[in-house]
Design a protein that fits this description.
The complex is a heterodimer of chains A (about 160) and B (about 260).
Chain A: E1 2-7, E2 10-15, H1 22-28, E3 47-50, E4 53-56, E5 69-71, H2 73-76, H3 84-91, H4 101-114, H5 120-126, H6 138-151
Parallel strand pairs in A: 1-5
Antiparallel strand pairs in A: 1-2, 3-4, 3-5
Chain B: E1 7-10, H1 14-21, E2 26-29, H2 33-38, E3 45-48, E4 57-60, E5 63-67, H3 72-77, H4 84-93, H5 99-104, H6 107-113, H7 120-126, E6 130-134, E7 138-142, H8 143-150, E8 156-163, E9 169-176, E10 186-195, E11 198-209, E12 212-216, H9 241-259
Parallel strand pairs in B: 1-3, 2-3
Antiparallel strand pairs in B: 4-5, 5-8, 6-7, 6-8, 9-10, 10-11, 11-12
Classes of the chains: A alpha+beta (about 160), B alpha+beta (about 260).
Chain lengths: ~160, ~260
């Protein structure tokens, strides 16, 4: 079946099955920046924004969000025009293999939208749905702090 | 795996949803997390209730009323001035799963599904929450009655409600996990009323047992020296049933001491 979804600000006709997860529907239609990690809602590699809220796309059937807006990490920015968050991840050295990064970027966006000046504990708590198996978490937390600092106009965000 | 010919039913009213629900193989789809765990072949159609107006949070006469479609995150993050019971609920709910899962998990789905590792149902039992459902007619029942009588029957959950604030309310909770983001092997929730030096209306809720949850009311009349509950737990790969029983009793003892103010 073919259905129109609003993905990264554009209406796009995508092919899917009635039981396709949002992860499958996105990846099968070229949105491969959404990663397939565990398919159990544990690793966060597949995170996307549905109506601006971060969710595990592997746990949702695509048809249930047909009339909502979907944003992937590429919808926040790409290599030609990266977002402040994506640049902060690169600058902080928070990307190693990069598989988990799109999910972390989505969680970071979600956190900073609600809380532009998070404490380290708040950052750890907001990233509780993301797993990284190679970088380690210190540089990722540094990246979130750096993104917050830059989004706040360079002010020191340490509490 | 799901069937190939599965259908999506977009509905506008509770009545439409109820009519479809009575047809074999149709299930309610809200957040979808519980359904996704089973991917049952028996499912022939999803009744998408996201278009119904079940995503509301109302505050009336010291009551918090949450529509079934409200996510756990929305309930926790509501900017209203929270009373002591609502704060207790938010603290317990914030331990469930992870941030993106809580963003999707609905209060209704969490109650209808009620897995053994649920953080949601034991918390609501501890504060005597009520459930409003539709099963041909709209009824409101205590959540314990709902679990015993209505949960396994066909119904559409409409909302839950609980007190916002209770005078002299005290609460305790602890959960047994291996790491922070883990399914709890057991949860002990205790609530009570602290007046001067006495603790009354003590309610102990223990989840993770063979019957999923056990509830003990008015425990102030039963707790004596060397008091122990004999709880029938399931053995799992992490913990033996006997170990869980011992830990649950330690949590209860600690909880009562903390609530009594003997431990800060």
């Amino acid at each position: 079946m073919k259905e129109i979804f609003n993905i990264n600000g554009k209406n796009k006709k995508i092919e899917l099955r009635p039981d396709s997860t949002l992860l499958e529907a996105l990846r099968d239609n070229g949105f491969t920046e959404v990663k397939n990690g565990c398919e159990e809602g544990q690793c966060g590699a597949c995170l996307v924004l549905v109506d601006d809220v971060s969710v595990n796309s592997c746990q949702i059937l695509a048809m249930s969000v047909k009339d909502q807006t979907i944003v992937t990490s590429k919808g926040l920015g790409d290599q030609h025009k990266p977002s402040i968050i994506q640049e902060a991840y690169v600058d902080a050295g928070a990307v190693q293999c990069g598989f988990c990064t799109p999910g972390f970027v989505i969680s970071t966006y979600s956190l900073l939208k609600k809380n532009p000046n998070p404490t380290e504990e708040e950052i750890k708590s907001a990233l509780d749905g993301n797993l990284c198996r190679c970088t380690g978490y210190i540089k990722i937390i540094d990246a979130v702090k750096l993104a917050a600092k830059r989004m706040n106009g360079g002010e020191d965000n340490e509490k | 795996m799901y069937r190939d010919d599965i259908k999506w039913h977009e509905i506008k009213t509770i009545k439409q949803a109820w009519e479809l629900l009575q047809q074999e193989g149709n299930v309610i789809y809200s957040g979808g997390l519980g359904i996704n765990r089973t991917k049952s072949e028996k499912i022939r159609g999803f009744i998408n209730i996201n278009s119904l107006s079940l995503k509301y949070l109302n505050f009336e006469d010291n009551k918090v009323i949450a529509g079934a479609g409200v996510s756990i995150a929305e309930l926790i993050e509501s900017p209203v001035n929270k009373g002591n019971v609502y704060s207790y609920i938010c603290n317990l709910f914030s331990k469930a799963a992870s941030t993106p899962i809580r963003n999707r998990m609905t209060i209704g789905g969490s109650i209808v599904d009620f897995p053994i590792w649920s953080d949601i149902v034991p918390a609501l039992i501890a504060v005597n929450a009520e459930v409003t459902l539709f099963n041909g007619k709209e009824i409101t029942v205590n959540i314990e009655e709902y679990i015993q009588k209505y949960q396994k029957e066909l119904h559409i959950l409409l909302n839950i409600s609980f007190e916002n604030n209770r005078d002299n309310f005290v609460g305790y909770s602890n959960r047994l996990t291996q790491v922070r983001f883990d399914y709890p092997a057991l949860i002990v929730n205790i609530t009570g009323i602290k007046q001067d030096i006495s603790l009354n209306n003590i309610k102990v809720v223990v989840s993770g047992t063979k019957s999923k949850v056990e509830v003990f009311n008015n425990m102030e009349n039963k707790i004596k020296d060397n008091f122990k509950l004999d709880l029938d737990f399931i053995k799992d790969v992490r913990f033996s049933a006997d170990y869980k029983n011992k830990i649950a009793n330690v949590y209860i003892e600690d909880g009562l001491k903390i609530m009594n103010g003997r431990v800060k």
